[in-house]
Amino acid sequence: MNYWINIYTAPENYAMDDAIADAGRQWTPDPKDIHILHITKNSHGRAKPMFNEVLAKKTISASSLLLNSITNYIETK
Predict the structure, then answer these.
(1) Residue 42: CB partners within 8 Å, gap ≥ 6?
(2) Is the separation of the CB atoms in 21 and 44 below 8 Å?
(3) Can you give the residue range of the structural domain that contains 13?
(4) What pTM, to 2 d.p., does this model score?
(5) pLDDT tens for each residue of 36-67
């Protein structure tokens, strides 16, 4: 199953890691392929809080969605 969670960053304090990420160019997937679109105030260097943040219009984090997906996959094998 393909499931795309797209997290954009809009940090309150632009940091060096954000500049590096911007210099590396961002990609924008086709909107029809995105299942969840979330905007966070975390910088790119704060991946752990970003991954654990509850997603907009959801009651679950990206890390929890990933864990659920892995668990479901393992249980079906």
Answers:
(1) 9, 11, 49, 50, 53
(2) yes
(3) 5-75
(4) 0.74
(5) 889 999 998 999 999 999 998 889 999 999 99
